[in-house]
Structure formats: structure tokens, C-alpha cells
Amino acid sequence: MKTTVFLGTASAAMLVAGLAGAQTLSDVQERGTLNCGVSTGLTGFSAPNASGEWEGFDVAVCRAVAAAVLDDPSAVEFVPTTGKTRFTSLASGEIDLLSRNTTWTFSRDNDLKFEFAGVNYYDGQGFLIPKELGVTSAKDLDGATVCVQTGTTTELNLADFFRKNNISYEPVPIETNGEAQQQYIAGACDAYTTDASGLAATRASFENPSEHVILPEIISKEPLGPLVRHGDSEWGDVVRWTLNALVAAEEYGVTSANVQDMASAPGDNPEVNRLLGTEGELGAMIGLDNDWAVKAISAGGNYGELFARHIGEDTPVGLARGLNAQWTNGGLLYAPPFR
Amino acid sequence: MASISDHDTPKRRGFHPGMLLSDTRYRGLTFQFIALIAIICIASWLGWNLMRNFAAAGLNFSYGFLDNPANYDINQTLIDYTSRSSHLRAAIVGVINTLLVAIAGCILATLIGVSAGVMRLSKNWIVARLMSVYVEAFRNVPVLIWILIIGTVVTLSGGAPRDFLTRGGSVEPDRGLFLGSFAFTNRGLYAPAVEVGPGWPIVLGALVAGIVGFFLWRSHVKRTLFNSGKLLPVWPSWVILIAPVVIAELALGSISFIRPDVAANNFNIQGGTLIGKPFIALWLALSVYTGAFIAENVRAGILSVSTGQTEAAAALGLRPRRIMNLVVLPQALRVIVPPLISQYLNLTKNSSLAIAVGYADITATLGGITLNQTGRAIECVLLLMLFYLVISLTISGVMNIYNASVALKER
Amino acid sequence: MSDTHAQSVAFVRESFIPEQAPPARETGAIRWVRHNLFPTIPNAILTLLALYVIYVLLSGLLPWLLGGVWNAGSLSECREITGAGAGGCFAVLTERWNQLIFGFAFPQTEYWRPLLAFVLLFVAGAPALLPDLPRRLLILTALYPFVAYWLLWGGTILTPVSAFLGVLAGYFAFKATDRWSFALSLGAAVVAAVAVWWVGGWVASQERDFLAIQRIQSRDMGGYMLNMILGTVCISLSLPFGILLALGRQSRLPLIKYVCVAFIEFVRGVPLITLLFVANVVLAYFLPPDTNFDLILRVIIMITMFASAYIAEVIRGGLAALPRGQYEAADSLGLDYAQAMRLIILPQALKISIPGIVNVAVGLFKDTTLVSIISMFDVVGMIRGPILASTDWNGVYWELYGFAALLFFVTCYGISQYSQWLERKLATEHR
Prior knowledge:
The complex is a heterotrimer of chains A (339), B (411) and C (431).
Chain A: H1 2-14, H2 24-31, E1 34-39, E2 47-48, E3 54-55, H3 57-70, E4 76-81, H4 86-91, E5 97-98, H5 106-110, E6 114-116, E7 121-123, E8 125-130, E9 144-149, H6 153-164, E10 169-174, H7 177-185, E11 191-195, H8 196-204, E12 212-214, E13 222-224, E14 227-229, H9 233-251, H10 259-264, H11 270-276, H12 282-285, H13 292-300, H14 303-310
Parallel strand pairs in A: 1-4, 1-5, 9-10, 9-11
Antiparallel strand pairs in A: 2-3, 6-14, 7-13, 8-11, 8-12
Chain B: H1 2-7, H2 9-13, H3 19-22, H4 24-57, H5 87-120, H6 125-139, H7 143-157, E1 183-185, E2 188-191, E3 193-196, H8 200-228, H9 236-252, E4 255-258, E5 273-276, H10 277-304, H11 307-315, H12 320-350, H13 362-374, H14 377-408
Helix pairs in contact in B: 5-6, 5-10, 5-12, 5-13, 6-10, 7-10, 8-9, 10-12, 11-12, 12-14, 13-14
Chain C: H1 2-8, H2 28-36, H3 41-66, H4 75-82, H5 91-95, H6 97-102, H7 112-129, H8 138-153, H9 158-176, H10 182-206, H11 223-250, H12 254-269, H13 272-282, H14 295-321, H15 324-332, H16 337-367, H17 379-389, H18 398-430
Protein name (chain C): Inner membrane amino-acid ABC transporter permease protein YhdY
Keywords (chain C): Cell membrane, Membrane, Transmembrane, Transmembrane helix, Transport
Domain ABC transmembrane type-1 (chain C): 224-419
């Protein structure tokens, strides 16, 4: 009985003051940490390293937002979520921001009541298959057994793709990326399907990556981005413009190395000046300090730096920029003007 | 006590509020009233929170999504199902899969458990020790770990179906099918499929007639034994069981087997029946795990029958086998069956871990994919709990009936 | 007499024949083998089969264990070292040892705290678990939850101290008002305890750094430590709830009885995993919009509910097994319900229920692995998530699963052996 009551107080002590509602920004500032939902482990995007530090491209978004809001890129509580738990965690206020390769879809935006703050990675679903099978097109997969992570849009795209092409397949639903790799390597499925970026990350972790190919077909559009709860536009704006700042910084050549220099005094480019807060009052308009973007960029660098460090061609994941190049280089990245 | 107070003091003194606590007649009511208020408060607090949360998030409570197309495929469907079928149908597929693995698991677990339990009591030292090791190893390690381990064993032990394929006749396969019909691969067991042709109702009818005849003959033997003391042979019952269906099939030839086809496809063996790897892994894991518990129940049951019973039966001149069948087992069963049924219940509930090996049971379809895709967490979890609750209550209902029936024979 | 005999009997032996050794096949090891292993032909076949099974198991296991690699940085390094050998790659255990035991987020400098709490668990558990120790030592057991809480979660020492003082105040309030009816003194105890907690909570919130050790978020806990925490906390919490539910189910008050019956049957009727889904995805909707329990606490609530229903059924069995005379004797002494239960019925019923309670405890402890399905990183979750998904260790299954199985086996087998010992001990006391 004693323990019962005791745990009662313990629980009361652990009650975290609340979220939900329209003051996430002030809640985060009051609390001093950002609760950020990430995936339970996907090389390059979000995974704890050997010393337990979270690392990755999605993680970097959390850190940038924390830096912009709290001036401390390490003031982030990472909450690992699965495909099943991510939306409830966000809806219930357990996390302030979900940055976990989540596809922006109509129903998630409107039926599940979330607000996507933009796209940090334009992805598409592909197939990974052993070279020795000699398959060159996804349309040749008739009768194949396909491993698919359950609880994701990939499961639905897969069904649509095979149905549209009138070919048959055998799905093997898998809970985690690790187990999907196990099944695929053991030959329990002929192909593994998930976002092309995830496939690259998975292939990177194999013993002999060159024995596997990613088929050319991309069967879906997967704009992945961070999301927040509906109905808190201020907070949504903070996340959206932090992301935009990272993209714009790359466009204007602001990097983590030169951002302090450029922010120390107004330069020639008024857009950069406004971005870095040396001109105008953009920070105050979203309720932050005027140098919020400087902090966000210093946290890990601009979009291009983050990409190169976590998932770029020099990393084991080895992704090309492709659609994720700046619009000036033929990609889709296009930050709205800072004005 | 009640009669004294009824006739005595209260009527004269009348009612006063203090009696609500001090008088045993009212105290119960007071406590129940307080409890009722507390329950209503808690329930309405929870409901109010739910309403506020739903209003804040703009959500609602509705089962309308069950009619929408599910849009996902399931790898083991015993009824017609495509990705265009509704979520409801996906849930039904899950229900059927759950029931299938639960029933198959209960049967295998009973076989394993009874043999292990009996062998653990065997005088054969090695066998008894081996069974103790089995029972302790499985009882003391979580079922989830066993499911994962056995899932890995099944995945890694069979070859890939590719090894069996001729790829349209162009390639010499690494392995041939066992008996030309069976292949154990890491995707499951390929076996011939059964196809029924015209005249199948007659074959089915013959089978039913055989089963009825089987039991009729057995009861006839029993009646003759009790009435006249004459023991008729039992073996004709097996003839009655098998003969009609065999004759009907030979005459009509309505059942045919389709062998798995290794030439039609580049990835998988086609045709025939595939007993999927997820099913095999989950089925084996649940059966072996639950078997260890059943072995303990069986051992306890047999030990509970005192040796005096066996000796008395021997003194009456019964043969050892009849002692087991007529004296020991009926008494042991009374001890074995109730925990056995609750083990069945546990097995059914443990089958909800199916997703760990990718088996599409109700927890994986309704509580997994449907829940994720629709975001209807409360609706899905409620429905899921309701299903398991119905199963559990049914099984405990059966157990109560059994308990009542054995209780009648007690003196 | 002897004469007649001497004539009618041709030979009388007058000394014993010296004892002879029994035939070789009826002595020593051979006899044992014949009688225990090969008494009949089916039995002999069974023996050979068993020997074969043992051979298969050992021939796979021994080279794997003995040829194992304990020092390497990744699976491919392991494979280089073992070459074509069958040795296991146990290096994953040494390299990820801390993650397997403490989870990946627990601060490395603070590992001594859960270790100390674990050691203290035995110190505190001993008086409750070993009937021979003096009863006075139970104070250690009572202190333990507060110490363990402070060690595991950290923060100022004022929180556990004031929680303990609250309990103490409640206890003395109960003692002081002992002569009132049970319900009233219970109420007094609750009031006293809550008052102290309120004051203590206020003080603790003011002096957050008084004798504070590093605060640790519960989501940072993982590995086997998480299983231990969940198991210990939920089992100890579910005991009092289980007792209350069992008493409620036996109650003569229909409302209370049916509420308890409905609760017990509902919880026992659904798998634990659905309750964990509730903790994970549903419970948040039923709490006020401005509160937020962390996941571990929601999980503790649901597992405790689950365990209390099972313990309630075990205790109900114990209550039912008590002879009616005990109830009637208590009534005839003029004890009221609370006194009768506290002094006569429950001590006996609980004693009978010990084996059942231990069974539930072992089952519950094993079930704590299910939290890995709802994205918590207990030992199974660590294996299935970060470790197997990492580039270095992708493909090491047996070593990891075997290790997890071994951890649980040692713990659960230990508990069940203890329970059997206790059963024997308590049984002899009755004779």
C-alpha cells in the first residue's frame, strides 16, 4: 500500500506541464527542451550512435529548431516512435514536433489533423533486389515475395502498384527496418520495398552492397517532412521557416563556417541580411530572437551541409541530391523569399 | 443478528444520519452509494477529457472507416480478400487467422505437453531429464523471445524457393521437390492443393456417415458390455469410419491434388498450397511454449492420483492399460482439464504477438495496419479488445460447463 | 529329534555360503543403465532418440560457444577471426553490453545508480523473502521504494524524503485513531499523508537542487534495467490492488462485487499487448488536455492493472480455500469486517496464495518484454531496434537472442526455485 501512494506522488511529480492548444512555442521555451519524435533507427536519418547520441538528417531538423527557439541545439529530448505510435505521440502532445520520414498526404494533413511544415526530403518508393535475380524492372516482379514495413504508406503504394499493373505478389509485413533486412538477406523475400532513401541506407549496411540493386522505378511520391499539430500556426510557422532558413542558407551560400562572419555585419545581399537578422525584424514576427536563423544554421550547417554529412554521396548511405537539389540546380528545393 | 435489530431498537428510535455509518443495515448502502458516485465521477471525468481532446484535435468517434477500402494486401487469406476489400473484411481475415493459429496451436501444444508430461514421469532417466530441461527452458523465457528465436530458425533453416525453380524449364533446379509435391522453404511449406470436382457432396456425405457410424458402433460396444458383459471388438469402428469415404472417392474420383509448380514463375513456387512461414513460426513457437506449461499440468494431474487407486485397480484384476484408461486418467483429467483450458486461453491471447513474425492475425490487421492507416486508435483498440473478450468468455464458459459436469460426479 | 532329522535329511548346511558379487549385468553402472535406460524395447528406442537429440544440440552449441569471438568491432571482423569456423560472435555482447543492460540513452556516468539499486533490492527484499530474519528488518523493505526511486530517477532528495514522511504521518495518524472505525482512521491517515505530501511537494519544488543527483528522464531508461524496473514496480504495486480486488469480488455488496468482477474478467480476457496499445495510443485521449504522463508511467499503470487482476484471482483462490470456520470464528469474536480480514483471514489466505502469486510474478516479469512492441527499448527492443539495425551487427541473431533468453532464464528460474523453497519451508511449519 505504501508503495502505491508513493508512486502516486512520484507520478504527480513527473507530470509534465501541458502542450496541446495554441502555445507550443511558449511551452517549449518555458520547458527549456524540445520534445522531438524520431524513428527508432534508420541509418542516416535518425539513429542513436554507439554512445547513445541521436544522429541523422531528420535529427538535424530537430536540432535546428531547438537552436532557433532555445539557442541550444542539444536541448532536444528525442522520443523514438514507430509507424504506429508516431501520430498519437504528436496528437497527445507527448512530442512538439515529429521529424521522422513521414509522408505528407491529404488525409494526414486533414483527417488526422496535422500540419506539415514543409518537405525536407523528396523521396519515392522503390525496390531493392539481389542482382543475381536479373530483374531490371519492377514490372518483372510478378509472383515475387516482397518485404514491406507495416504501418507506412509504402504498404498501400505497394498494393496499388501491383494492382495497377495487374501482377501478383506476396507481401511480408515487417515491424522494424532491422527485421526487414534480416528477412531480405535470408532470402525470405525477393525484394524489399520502402522509400528509395531508406533502401540506400539499408543497402549501405549490408556486407556486400554491390550485390544488390535498387530498381529504377519509383512507384510513388513521398514528400517527407516534419509535422506539428493542427491549430497552432505560430509553432507551425517556427518549424516551417526554420526549415526554409536552412534551404535558403544553402541557396545564398551561408554555411556553418561563415554564418558568424556574415551575421556580424550587414552584407551586400539584403535577403541574406534579413535572413540573418542584420536587417529588418523577421525574428520578432515569428516570436523569436532576430538571430534565430543564425543559431539554426550554426547548429549543423545549411541544408546542403546536413545532406552531405548524413546521407550524401560520401556517406555509407550515398544518396545523390537528385530532386533534393536547389531549384537553381534543377531540384525541387525552393525556399520562399525572406521578406 | 438481523432479526434482533429488525424487531428491536431502530423502529423505536427512528432513523438518524449517524446510522448510515454505524448501522450494518445501512452501512452497505452507504458504501455502495459512495462507490457509485466515485465511479460515475471517474467515468464522466474520463469521458469529458475525451470530448475535450477530440474537440481540440477536431476528431470524432465513428466506425465508418470499416466500410472504406483497406488498400493493403494480406499474405494469408482464407476467405476472398483483395486490397480493394473493406477494413471490416481485413479484420475478419485477421479473426480467421487468429482462430486458425489458436486452434492449430492448442492441438499441437496438447500433443507436445501430454507427451512431455508423461515422459517427465518416465523411469527412463535421460528422457525424464531431457523433458525437465525442455519444460524449464520454455517456462522461464518470455514467449516473445521464443517467437523471435523460432521465427529466425524457420527463416534460416529452409532454402529459398528459388533453389527449387526451373524458371520455365531453362534452369536445372538445385533441389527437387520432396516426393514431387513438398518443398520446405524459408517462405513456408509448399504442399499439394486439394481440389474437389463434381460429386463432392456425396464424398462429404460419406465422410459424415462414417463419423456417425464410428460413434454409433462405439456406443453399441459399450452398451453390450454393460448389458451382457460381452466385449465386442473395437476395430470395426475404424472400418466404418474410413470405408464409406474411400469407396465414394474411388467410385466418383471427385478429389484431386494439384502439385506445386516449379516452372511457372521466376520467384516462387506456384500453385499448390503454401503454408506460410509466419504461420509455421508462430504455430510452432506458441505450441512448444504452451506445451511446456501443459506438461507441468499433466504431470501434476497424474501425480495427484494416489497410488492406492492403481493398486486397487490391479487388485481387481484390471490390465495395466485399462487401469490407465479407466482409473487413472479419468481422475487425473479432472485435475488436468481446468488448467489446460486456461492454457488454451493463454495461447490464444499470446497469438496476438503474431506481428513479431509477420503473421496477419487480428492484432496485425485491425490493431496494426488498419489502426495506422486510418488513425482511428480508440475505435480499433476497442474492437480488438472486444474480440479477445468474446473469445475468452466463450472459453471460460466452456470451462465452467466442464467443471459443473465433473462436479456432479463428486460425492 | 535331531537324530530323526539327521537320518531323514541327507545334507544340512551349517554355515552361510560366502556372499557372492551379483552378476555383472545387475550391478553398478550397468544395472543402472539397464534399468533406467533400456528396460524395454520402446524405452531403448526413446533413449537412443534422446541421446541423438542431445548430441545434435551439443554438437551445434559447443563449437559455437567455445569458438566464440569476444573481441571485435563488427560482425565482419568476427567472421574474419573465426574464418569458416562455427564460433559465435559474442563480441556484440561485450561491445553493446551497456546498451543491453541500461539502454542507449542512460548517462554512462550514472550506471552505478541502477546497480546500487539492484544490489539494495536484495538487501531490502531479504527481510520480506526470508522468514528467518528478524521482523524488525522489514523497515529496510519499507524504505527501499523511496531510496530506489531517488537512485533511479534522481532529482532532489527532498522528493522521496517527503514522500516517506507522508507515509509515516499516515501510519501514525492511523495508529493514533486506531480506536475509531477502520474507515475513519483510514480517512485520517490519508488526510495526514496528503497534507505532508502537499507541504513536502511544495518544499521540493522550491529547493530543486538540495542534495540533488542528476535527474534522469524515464524515457532514457532501457535494456534489461527497464525490464527489472517494470517487473519490480508493477508486481509490488499490483499486490495491494489485487488484494482489494479479491476482497471486492467476495464482497456482499452487489455494486462493489460486480464492478470488481467486471474489471477482473475484462482484464483477464484481453491480451496484455492490447492494454499496452491502450497505454500507448489511447490513454492520452482520456487524460486532461493539459497533462502528459510519460510513456513508462502509462505502461506501469496498464501492466499493474493487468497483474492485479491475475493476483486477485490467485488470492480469491486462497480466500476460498480457507475453511468457513475461520470466518465464523472471526465473527464470533465480534471482530468487524476490517479487523477480521486484517487479523484472521488475509494472513492465512496470502500464505496459501504464495505459489500462485510467484507464478503470476514470473509470468508478468516475462511479459515486460512486450513493451518492445510499443517502441520502448527494453532488452528485446534494444536487440530488435538499434543493435540489429546497425551496420556493424546486422545479422547477429543467436548470440543476442540467446543472451536475452539466458538473462530471463536465470532470473525466472531463480524466482521459481525460491518459491519452491519457501513453500517447503512454510509447509514444514504446519506439521
